[in-house]
Amino acid sequence: MADPIKRALTRRRVQRGRLVNEEPNEKLVLGVKFAIAMTVCLSLLEVAHLAFMHSWNSEVFAAISGLSGTILGIFVGQKT
Questions:
Q1: Domain presence at residue 54
Q2: How far, in Å, CA of 15 to CA of 13, rounded?
Q3: Looking at the whole model, is its pTM more than 0.85?
Q4: What is the number of domains present in the chain?
């Protein structure tokens, strides 16, 4: 089974009438996987904070927003 993150980051372009696939750097793929994992972990932390403390933690939400924006920026920037 192909890696969905690697497939999503693969750049496809036409060169001399042929379709050329440019695969992303392996470090970029690992970095995106790490950022997605940290976003999931922070989301679970925020849910736990809401469940046990009954309050919203804006610092954790800011970290989640920052990581989500970084991930989206990588996907958009890699395709162009």
A1: yes
A2: 6
A3: no
A4: 1
* Domain housing 62: 25-79
Residue 13 lies in a domain: no
User: Can you give the three-state secondary structure of the chain, one letter per residue?
Assistant: CCCHHHHHHCEEEEECCEEEEECCCHHHHHHHHHHHHHHHHHHHHHHHHHHHHCCCCHHHHHHHHHHHHHHHHHHHHHHC
Digit-coded pLDDT (tens) for 38-74: 999 999 999 999 999 999 999 999 999 999 999 999 9
Q: Does residue 20 belong to any structural domain of this protein? A: no
The angle at the Cα of 73, spanning 37 to 79, to the nearest 5 degrees, equals: 110
Domain annotation covers residue 7: no
